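stage 2 :: seqdesign
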C-alpha cells in the first residue's frame, strides 16, 4: 500500500466528521457576521442621524473598527462556503486512494465502499448550497452595508484632511 493509499485509508472514515466540524465553524462565522452586521448598521445610522459631534474620535475609531470586523467576517464566510466542494472532493479522492485493489475480493469490497467514498462530495455540496442560500437570504445587504461604510470612511478621511488644512492656515 502506497503513501497516499495509507493516508486515504486512515482519513476516509473520519472525513465526513471533518466536513461537519467545518460546517459548525462556518455557522459560527455566520452568527458572528449577523451580529456585526446589526452593530454596523446601527452605528452608521446613529452617525448619519446625529448632527452634533460627528467627528468624535471615539466614534470614528468605532466605525473604522466595525468596518474591519464586518469586512473580515464576511470575507471569511464567503471563503468558507467556497471551500466546501473542495473538501468534499478531497474526501472522495482520499477515500478512493485508500481502497484496496489487490485481489478480486478486495475489488468487490471496493465496489461496496464506493458510496462512502462519494459521501464526502455529497456533504461538501450540501453544505456549500445551504450556506449559499443563507448568504443570499440573510446577508444580501452586507455588501451594500460595506459600501455605505466605505463611503462614510471616505467622508471622515476627507473631512479630517480638510480640518487639518484649516488648522494649519490659522
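stage 2 :: out
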Amino acid at each position: 500500500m502506497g503513501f497516499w493509499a495509507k493516508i486515504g485509508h486512515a482519513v476516509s472514515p473520519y472525513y465526513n466528521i471533518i466536513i461537519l466540524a467545518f460546517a459548525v465553524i462556518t455557522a459560527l462565522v455566520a452568527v458572528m457576521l449577523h451580529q456585526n452586521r446589526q452593530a454596523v448598521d446601527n452605528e452608521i445610522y446613529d452617525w448619519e442621524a446625529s448632527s452634533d459631534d460627528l467627528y468624535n474620535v471615539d466614534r470614528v475609531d468605532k466605525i473604522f473598527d466595525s468596518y474591519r470586523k464586518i469586512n473580515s467576517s464576511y470575507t471569511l464566510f464567503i471563503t468558507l462556503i467556497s471551500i466546501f466542494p473542495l473538501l468534499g472532493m478531497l474526501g472522495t479522492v482520499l477515500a478512493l486512494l485508500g481502497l484496496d485493489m489487490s485481489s478480486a475480493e478486495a475489488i468487490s469490497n471496493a465496489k461496496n465502499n464506493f458510496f462512502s467514498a462519494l459521501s464526502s462530495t455529497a456533504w461538501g455540496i450540501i453544505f456549500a448550497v445551504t450556506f449559499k442560500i443563507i448568504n443570499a437570504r440573510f446577508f444580501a445587504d452586507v455588501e451594500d452595508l460595506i459600501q455605505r461604510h466605505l463611503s462614510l470612511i471616505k467622508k471622515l478621511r476627507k473631512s479630517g484632511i480638510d480640518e487639518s488644512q484649516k488648522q494649519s492656515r490659522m
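stage 3 :: structure notes
- The first helix runs from residue 3 to 49.
- The two ends are 81 Å apart (CA to CA).
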